[in-house]
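agent> call fold_tool(seq_1)
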Amino acid sequence: MGTGHDHGAGGAAPDHRARLGVAFGITATILVAQAVGAVLTGSLALLTDTAHMLTDSTGLLVALVAVSLALRPATKRRTWGFRRVEVLAALAQAALLLAVGVYAVVEGVRRLVAPPEVPSSELLVFGVVGLVGNVVAIAVLASGRRANLNLRAAFLEVVNDALGSVGVVVAAVVIATTGYQRADTIAALVIAALIVPRAFRLLREATAVLMEFTPEGLDLDDVRAHILSLDHVEDVHDLHASTVATGLPTISAHVVVDDACFRDGHALEIVERVRTCVAHHFPVSVEHSTFQLETAALRDREAHGHA
């Protein structure tokens, strides 16, 4: 006897698409300005920040496409719609961020040995332009950053860009006041240090969803014990939990009950109690659940069949 509790795949709110569109426009504009600045000044910090901006502009564009796809409804061929596109987009962004961080470290070490001359005044101008633009983009994305992995990735990337611009500005000021040219390279390495840990964290989170790991905060041993504590429940097996997309955890299991439950009408009551249990009793509320009720004899036959 199988049953499911299905909540629609839903979709990202349309205003998320508008926010991402504005942020992408700002970031793309800053990218062009900083690319020109990197060529004119030869600054590694500005070049690293420009590469970061390229990554983030690409990431924001991917995020914008992902949000648009997520708004498309589910179909009989795509029962979750495009909800998981946000996870794929976050994974791509994390990989790009990691690549930029590694490049900055390698090039930074080389330039520490032989630092080139960097004009501080031009570097300061482009750094301030980048900082102002990123602050505006942060303001646009701030309120929606907790909506899903994709928007969180976009917000973190813009914050990293702003911190990178701060590094460029500081490097320009140090060079202008002290003539210490390695300040530019040090700033580039600081930017790389900001990029890499966040890239790894985002990569880990996206991978956990794609590998269908148990949702963080949900202890399946506790779930099993709580279901077993219900009247008439004899066993729980094939218990699985995963995450389809942000805010959409799922769980399924085979629940063994007394034979009498199928004769006296208790079966449906037990299903509802188990559903309520996983939806309200644990830190992670799982409202999309599928439970198969079976007798001990059926469980034993299945176990023999898989032996």
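agent> call fold_tool(seq_2)
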Amino acid sequence: MLALITGGFFKIGLFFYATVLGLSHVFKLKNPSPLVFPIGLVVLFYSLSLAQNYFEHVYEGLKIIPFTLHLPFQVVIPALLLVIDF
């Protein structure tokens, strides 16, 4: 359990760091520090609004996400790119 929590912490931290650096490059900021607090607030409120409880979270993960994210990104887009490549 400790490895799972530690791994999740580092994964979220790395994604957050990449987001801050990416947006600082997009907006051509030399110092990315002013973006940390606003992006942190966006992540906080978005994570709180995704699911109200654990059961809703599991339902979305098993019933909604496979058709809205997994199918397009794992089947449709690669097939379209294959057709374009040929």
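agent> summarizing second result for user.
Residues 59 and 65 are 9 Å apart (CA to CA). The radius of gyration is 17 Å.
agent> awaiting next instruction.
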